[in-house]
Amino acid sequence: MAREGTEGIELLKRYYEKNGSQLVIVYGQKHAKIMKQVRAFADGKTSAFYRARSCSEREQLFIWGKECGEKGAGLPEYPQYTELFAFLTEQQTGKAVIIIEEFQHFVKQSGDFIPSLLRFLHCSRQPVIAVLCSTAVGWIENSMVCKIGQAACGIAGFIKIKEQRFFELVRAFPGSTRQEQIETYAVLGGFPGLWDHFEKGLPPRENICRYLLHDGAFLHEEALRLVAGELRETGVYHTILAALATGRQKLNDLFRHTGFSRAKISVYLKNLMELEIVEKVFSYDTEGRENAQKGVYRIRNHFVAFYFHYLYPHLSRLDEMSPEDFYDCYIAPDFRSYVTPFFRQVCQEYMEYLNDRRKLPFFCTRMGEWVGKAGTIDLIAQDDSGHTIVCLCGWEKPVMPYEDYEWLLFCTRKARLQADYVYLFSAVRFDGALQREAQQNGSLRLISLDSF
């Protein structure tokens, strides 16, 4: 599975270099810029491209045939798949490349598309790599194999283009301060397709006002389009997302607020999780299980979370106010608090970075968040022998006080953990008592935002 950067390109190159023909599935979220990586892979190679439409199979073949006709193909008005594949590869030299974007539109209408493609690849005299691309993540991971049956055995591999990490966003916004980059990450998440709609060099407030709050801006209603893309009964999904955005994260809380049955809520949450819009967070497993929450739901997609936290509850006022006044009235007062959980994600990424480079006191094989009934441990990291690092990520306060350190130790006892090291992250700095403690206590590490 690809993670970020150019890994998708590198994996495609490996399949391309193999002998014979291959069928590869490349998929990811809408704004993950899948096609940018696929086109970069195809650069310098002779390739053929088609973007599938949401229409009947007959209309699809008509449109595709017409496109091929514009390139000199003498095809029937409604060609067969084999005729299209043959034309796409007949003038290519070396290993032929066929790229089909949003191929799920073919499969959902026709059970013969994948089998026909596989038969063509098997019989082709020249090697071919067929790259089928899709932004229908939930369908790919949960429905496609059932739909195509035995034909799934002919797929050489799946490449998932995931969200990019925070440090990729840092490269995309080089002129911003680290605080501005984290705030931008809290709003847009790891999707380069969304980053493109913020102006580089502008502070987050101005970007939010110009390109998200402003009526007519692309991002203004994009969160609703993301939810509606593969789901019906959007009113039910909006209700659940709005409830999650207000902190109602348990099934019982959602039941009491929405009035929907628990069974119905569970089904809709499952659908949202398949689309990677919502996630179920399980507490890190420790001996203090009785002090941990059994699992809560959160909006996973940063952009959807921001929309339902700030815009959705106040749409009437958004229509009446200027973007700047709306920001100052509804976003500015608690935005620093809102960013806190996303800062935790950045801190975890930083710890993973150090761990990968063996720069932690020991190599950690497990990391996770402990969600307690009385408090939370932002990050626990352990090795196979049980050596433990606990982390606190302080974003809201300009100065992290010694009391926060004491609270972390309290939560650590509730989790029944013995911390070998404590890492404290602060957005700005630490108070004098913490600095003196760190000088005397070699197991306490203080990391400010400037250290990233």
Itemize the secondary structure elements and their pairings:
Blueprint: H1 7-17, E1 22-28, H2 34-42, E2 47-51, H3 57-69, H4 81-90, E3 96-101, H5 104-109, H6 113-123, E4 128-134, H7 137-142, H8 144-148, E5 157-161, H9 166-172, H10 178-188, H11 192-195, H12 204-213, H13 222-228, H14 234-245, H15 251-258, H16 262-274, E6 278-281, E7 296-299, H17 302-311, H18 315-320, H19 323-331, H20 335-356, E8 366-371, E9 376-382, E10 388-394, E11 399-400, H21 402-414, E12 421-426, E13 429-430, H22 432-440, E14 444-448
Parallel strand pairs: 1-4, 1-5, 2-3, 3-4, 10-12, 11-13, 12-14
Antiparallel strand pairs: 6-7, 8-9, 9-10
Provide a descriptive summary of the structure in words.
The structure is a single chain. The longest helix is centred in the C-terminal third of the chain and has 22 residues, at 335-356. The two termini are 27 Å apart. The protein is of the alpha/beta class and 452 residues long. It has helices at residues 7-17, 34-42, 57-69, 81-90, 104-109, 113-123, 137-142, 144-148, 166-172, 178-188, 192-195, 204-213, 222-228, 234-245, 251-258, 262-274, 302-311, 315-320, 323-331, 335-356, 402-414, 432-440, and strands at 22-28, 47-51, 96-101, 128-134, 157-161, 278-281, 296-299, 366-371, 376-382, 388-394, 399-400, 421-426, 429-430, 444-448.
